[in-house]
Amino acid sequence: MAHDMLSSHQPVLTSDLLLRAYAAGVFPMSESRDDPKIFWVDPRQRGIIPLGGFHISRSLAKLIRSERYRVEINKDFSGTVQGCAERDETWINEEIFDLYTKLHYAGFAHSVEVWDEDKLIGGVYGVALGAAFFGESMFSRRPNASKMALTYLVKRLRYGGFQLFDTQFVTDHLISLGAIEIPRGDYHKRLERALDWDADFHAMPQDMSVQEILQRRTQRS
User: Fold this and answer.
1) What CA–CA distance (Å, rounded) separates 35 from 1?
2) What is the Cα–Cα distance from 22 to 30, expressed in whole angstroms?
3) Are the C-beta atoms of residues 169 and 3 closer than 8 Å to each other?
4) What tens digit of pLDDT does each residue of 183-215 get?
């Protein structure tokens, strides 16, 4: 596998244990939705998106300006996680789904969702701890819907004073948006600093204009 498995898990996890794992720089995964076993991962190369280096293509900026879709925060967290788990291969099993649902109700896990009228068409979810945000997964049912969700998430993180946006791994999709890989040791130093800061996921006004969302972006053709 592309990640470094630290140990398998047999007992039932708790929300508190999961938060302590994030603070230590590790996160849980399962081999598939039907595999009840969970293991801890601490990659040698960690994916992050520098909050000052997020890239928005012209086509994505055009979609956002069109205001064709609306963005909601935590309107349907469980639906967002389900959307992320719909792919043929997923690491989100039933226990992981339940764990993040509990973290959501406890105020630590959040979703940024893209809606077309009453249809959830894309989104991203993750965990906020200190001034670090751990992006877990995203999905898209329409072109650029997940990228739109990430755009709004990055703006929210910057507005709320976050210092670290952890994507765990990088993909071509994330690299096109500005994601980079950093060594494990560098990541742990950044995480330690971020956990010493306070940030507010809800600081950004819900009615922020499209122009404000797109301000100070790094644009790519």
Assistant:
1) 16
2) 16
3) yes
4) 999 999 999 999 999 999 999 998 899 999 988
pTM for this entry: 0.90
CA distance 135 to 169: 10
Identity (one letter) of the amino acid at 16?
Answer: D
93 contacts 125 by C-beta, under 8 angstroms: no
User: How many angstroms separate the CA atoms of 216 and 221, rounded?
Assistant: 16
Residues of the chain with pLDDT under 50: 1-2, 7, 9-11, 217-221
Tell me the one-letter amino acid at 13: L
> Is the separation of the CB atoms in 52 and 26 below 8 Å?
no
For 88-152, give the DSSP string.
Answer: SS-S--HHHHHHHHHHHHTTSEEEEEEEETTEEEEEEEEEEETTEEEEEEEEESSTTHHHHHHHH
Assess contact for 203 and 161: CB atoms under 8 A: yes
